[in-house]
Structure of Deoxycytidylate deaminase:
Amino acid sequence: MTRRKSWDTYFMDIAYMVSTRSQCPRRHVGAVLVQGKKLLGTAYNGAPMGVPDCSEAGCMLVEEYEIKRVDGQEQVVAKQRCVRTIHAEQNLLLFTDRHDREGSIVYVTDQPCWTCANMLANSGIAEIVYHRSYPKDQDKVMALMNQVGIRFRRLENYEPPAGTDEAVTN
């Protein structure tokens, strides 16, 4: 007899399946909105509708700098990001209603970046569940979630469905 999946695994599997729609050569990200046990929306990262995506037109990378304190010393850290792509979490917020988001859970394949975390903090959701870490923004995102009272947790010991975790994650 097949063991029944937990709700966390079930919804994270769906997020990973959604991520397979992404054409981003750097990272495939999927997100789903869940209220109770009801799936209310899905989204993935990609260029705006009607615009060539990164696989067609190439990534539009910009370099940003951030000052971080490490062992009491300030260090300048460079981060690259693609500005052609709308993140999965941003698309999820664009294509779902505020009413549906109130008290809901977002399952996302990757820990949200700082910009997405800020948007999710204002979205009405109660919880974010993610699988892959995003160390570049991890500390400040976790601090923000604690400050605004959004439950924020990594799904440990999770294995994505076969064939869904193939994008480069840099």
